[in-house]
TrEMBL record:
Organism this protein belongs to: Callorhinchus milii (Ghost shark)
Sequence ranges assigned to domain Glycoside hydrolase family 29 N-terminal in this UniProt record: 10-120
Domain (Alpha-L-fucosidase C-terminal): residue spans on this chain: 131-176
Family named by the database record: Belongs to the glycosyl hydrolase 29 family.
Record protein name field: alpha-L-fucosidase
GO terms for MF: alpha-L-fucosidase activity
Function: Alpha-L-fucosidase is responsible for hydrolyzing the alpha-1,6-linked fucose joined to the reducing-end N-acetylglucosamine of the carbohydrate moieties of glycoproteins.
Example of a GO biological process term: glycoside catabolic process
Gene behind the chain: FUCA2
A GO term from the CC aspect: lysosome
Coiled coil regions, renumbered to chain: none
InterPro entries: FUC_metazoa-typ (IPR016286), Fucosidase_C (IPR031919), GH (IPR017853), Glyco_hydro_29 (IPR000933), Glyco_hydro_29_CS (IPR018526), Glyco_hydro_29_N (IPR057739)
Keywords of this entry: Glycosidase, Hydrolase, Signal
EC numbers: 3.2.1.51
Length: 241
């Protein structure tokens, strides 16, 4: 096929990324980024760029008429992949005549809606020194080192309304929190408690101003993405995102 000759002559050869699926024995060893296997997710930071090539349907890359609801993945895979420094390539299987079934459409729209609110913690971010929290494993971290920001993303609301973070180092004083929840954006102080020399206990019920809701927020809203950054302190306010 004269691949090497074509690559040398290509006008975009310096801007094209090649994966590790171009020859025998290259998987997870050679290429601009690794794929290693379908639905590959190491769960920790790798020294080489990598991609999670996955399907929304856990059992098929195509359309399955008999697929069940439990067979479809959610936004959780996106958060875990980005926290570990990977790129997520999402596949859906259309029907024989090219239609996207409502369930696939729903998952894609949910991903878009979630990113429209929490994209700040995903787009152009980098892995933090901790990918997963040491105390609350459902929390995944991303960061913006140039702005000294750390994002703690959680998709399950704590039953106690308190989020325990073991990875951040505790420091004295108040902190600012930027919290995104279902289109509501709040800035303000919150009830906090230091856990020794490392870790925080955050009282989430203090983060949402009462005038943002017509009733008390549900005890276990689904799903949520918390985006946190520690800097200074601001007055509390809210507005639609």
């Amino acid at each position: 096929w004269e691949v090497s000759v074509c690559c040398c002559c290509s006008p975009v050869r310096k801007t094209v990324e090649t994966n590790d699926r171009w020859g025998l024995g290259t998987i997870c060893k050679h290429g601009g980024y690794y794929t290693c296997a379908d639905r590959y997710n190491p769960g920790h930071l790798l020294p080489h760029k990598w991609e999670n090539c996955m399907t929304i349907d856990r059992k098929s890359w195509g359309f399955r008429r008999n697929a069940e609801l439990r067979d479809f993945l959610s936004i959780q895979q996106l958060v875990q992949t980005v926290s570990c420094g990977g790129n997520l390539l999402v596949n859906i299987g259309p029907t024989h005549d090219g239609q996207i079934i409502p369930l696939f459409e729903e998952r894609l729209r949910q991903m878009g809606q979630w990113l429209s609110v929490n994209g700040e913690a995903i787009y152009s971010t980098k892995p933090w020194r901790h990918q997963n929290d040491t105390v609350t494993p459902t929390v995944w971290y991303t960061s913006r080192p140039e702005q000294s920001l750390v994002y703690a993303v959680f998709l399950t609301w704590p039953k106690t309304d308190s989020l325990i973070l073991g990875a951040p180092s505790a420091t004295a004083g108040h902190s600012k929190v930027s919290h995104h929840w279902a289109g509501v954006h709040t800035h303000g102080t919150y009830r906090e408690r230091r856990l020794g020399t490392r870790g925080w206990a955050l009282g989430l019920s203090w983060m949402l101003p009462h005038h943002c809701f017509t009733s008390t927020p549900p005890p276990n809203p689904y799903p949520v993405g918390g985006v946190w950054d520690w800097e200074g302190q601001r007055d509390r306010s809210c507005y639609g995102s």
